[in-house]
Amino acid sequence: MRMFLLLQDVADIEKKMEAAPDSAYEIGVVIGTYLPLVVLVLVAYAFYYYSKKRTQD
Largest Cα–Cα distance in the chain? Predict the structure, then answer.
């Protein structure tokens, strides 16, 4: 089920890219797609780093 949602999301991104009026819109779609993932990874790393540092002290 999760793989289906991922594939569906990729197809949606491809549709948006094809219908994009110019390259600036394409860049916005890419940033809007990957930015939440990057932020989530950074928050997870911050929690990991804080937890690791706390257990060492």
Answer: 55
